Amino acid sequence: MPWLVILTLKSILGSIIGSSFYAWFKNTKVGVWFQVKMNNFMSYLAEKYHIKIAEREDKWLKEYPRLANRIISLEEEIQILKDEQYGKTTTAANKE
User: Fold this and answer.
1) Which of 23, 36, 78, 92 is 20 to 30 A off residue 13, Cα-Cα?
2) Can you tell me the distance from the alpha carbon of 44 to that of 60, in angstroms, rounded to the nearest whole number?
């Protein structure tokens, strides 16, 4: 029984330390580089083995149309705010 408690504590502490490390690491130059490499590699695997990630998203969007519309509108609002912050005049209406 004590080994179960030890393994549980070890797991909890390991996850806390790992999460803290990643929170710091993702903002470093090496962390950004690593994330880009991982994204490229995962895209390569998705193409090579015909993993249909986009189709899953489309299916989900069809199943939950109200939530999908809300997410799309929030993304458009974020883009408008980013454009205003960085001095760009491009908006969702001007892109069409």
Assistant:
1) 36
2) 23
